[in-house]
Every structure is written in C-alpha cells, then in structure tokens.
C-alpha cells in the first residue's frame, strides 16, 4: 500500500471508529453479502409494503447523510477528482452490478471531459489498455462486495504498469484498496436484498462535478457538444 493510500485508509478508519460509517467499514454490520441470505435476514414476508417502504427510505436517508457528512470532513472525493482531471487518458471499469456505476460515470464525465473510455470488453478491452499503460493514465474502478475478481486483477495490473488507480468501493477491506492511489469508500448499508446504490450515485455526481469544473477545456467541450446535439436533433 502506498503512502497516500495508507493515509486515506487511516483517515477513514479514525473518523469513523465511533460507528459513523458502520455500513462502509464492516461487512458484519451490513448483514449477509448475497441476496438470498439477505431476504430472510432483513425482509419479513409478513411486513406490509408500506412498512417495508418506510424502512427502506429511512435507511437510504441515513446512507446519504453519512456520505455527505463523511466528505465534508475528509477530501477523498476532491483528491480523486483532481487525479482524474489531471490525467491525459481516463479509463473507467466495473463488473457485475458495478458495471452500472462505471457506465453512469462514463456518460456523465464524457460531457465535459475528453479522453474518457469505458472498459466494457467490447469497444475497449482490458488487455488492450494494459498493453499501453502510461504514467499519465488514470483508471477509475468500481467494486462493491462481493468483489469481482476481474476488476481486482485489472486494478493490480494497471497499477503495476505505472498507471494511477482511483478506487470507489465500500470497505477498507476491499481488494481494490491496496493498489489504489486514491480510495473513495461509500456506505452501502440497506434494508433491501441488495446493498444500497444511493451513496454511490451521489459520489458519481460529486466526482463528475468536481472533475468537470477543473478539467482543461471543459467549457468549450460542453458548448460544442450542445451545438452538436441541436444540430443532430437528438432530443424531442
């Protein structure tokens, strides 16, 4: 683990040792890591839809409050955005459910930032990226429990070849933490059969805004993109 990464992990652990981010730091406190086991642990078949909805809303509100409270006191999102903005090429990856998070950041970031590529195994493949990693490249990797092996392997290989890794994950125990230059840890506790995506969506929104605000040429790119949208008549 590099020095910056170690500082990030210690910062997160110290700030939340009292339980402020219980969902992000402990798998046990989040319950089982698979939907089948979670159904019996967190969802009663006898509960009414109204009761279940109230429980879900309360938990998601707690998640968002925890996310924003955390990032008001530590700078991991701002540091991650600075790394992304300063890169020459920006790659984004996620597998399984995390592919949706990677896809959302790719769509949002591409509006105002150039050289953004989603590693989807089709238009951009992991092996092609790894054969030409440069020191000015950044890989933004999403991985939540249960952690996909292909994401962890790609992150380790990318870092070993001199690229910078920004990891967006849900625990200090995530396999993405050790090789990453910057780690953004997001609470994902949920009363549903799956871990919550609410905080992750909020982090993607923050990363997009902060990166776009500081990236060179973002205003020109946004203006040109809007002109093309109008010219092509993409929207009704």
Fold and architecture overview:
The chain has 236 residues and is of the alpha/beta class. The chain has a single domain, classed as Glucose-6-phosphate isomerase like protein, domain 1 (Rossmann fold, 3-Layer(aba) Sandwich). Helix content is 54%, strand content 11%. It is built from eleven helices and five strands; from the N terminus they run ααααααβαβαβαββαα. It has a five-stranded parallel sheet, with helices on both faces.
Number of domains: 1
Quote the CATH topology: Rossmann fold
Detail the poorly predicted runs.
12-28
Order of helices and strands: HHHHHHEHEHEHEEHH
Top-tier CATH class: Alpha Beta
Tell me the fraction of residues in β-strands, as a range.
5-15%
Mean pLDDT: 85
**Major sheet attributes:** 5 strands, parallel
Class by SSE composition? alpha/beta
Say which CATH homologous superfamily is assigned: Glucose-6-phosphate isomerase like protein, domain 1
Radius of gyration: 19 Å
Number of strands: 5
Strand order of the largest sheet: 2-1-3-4-5
Helix content: 40-55%
Task: Give me the number of helical elements.
Answer: 11
């Amino acid at each position: 683990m590099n020095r910056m990464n170690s500082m990030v992990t210690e910062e997160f652990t110290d700030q939340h040792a009292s339980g402020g981010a219980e969902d992000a730091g402990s798998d046990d406190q989040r319950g089982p890591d698979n939907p089948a086991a979670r159904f019996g642990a967190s969802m009663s078949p006898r509960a009414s839809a109204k009761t279940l909805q109230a429980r879900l809303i309360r938990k998601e509100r707690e998640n968002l409050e925890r996310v924003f409270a955390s990032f008001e006191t530590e700078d991991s999102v701002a540091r991650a955005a600075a790394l992304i903005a300063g890169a020459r090429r920006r790659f984004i990856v996620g597998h399984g459910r995390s592919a949706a998070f990677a896809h959302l950041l790719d769509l949002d970031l591409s509006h105002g930032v150039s050289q953004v590529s989603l590693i989807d195994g089709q238009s951009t493949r992991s092996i092609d990226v790894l054969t030409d990693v440069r020191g000015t490249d950044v890989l933004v990797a999403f991985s939540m429990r249960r952690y996909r092996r292909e994401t962890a392997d790609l992150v380790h290989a990318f870092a070993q070849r001199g690229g910078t890794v920004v990891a967006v994950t849900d625990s200090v125990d995530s396999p993405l933490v050790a090789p990453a230059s910057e780690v953004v840890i997001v609470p994902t506790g949920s009363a549903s059969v799956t871990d919550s995506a609410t905080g992750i969506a909020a982090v993607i929104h923050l990363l997009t805004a902060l990166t776009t605000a500081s990236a060179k040429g973002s205003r020109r790119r946004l203006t040109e993109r809007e002109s093309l949208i109008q010219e092509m008549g993409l929207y009704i």
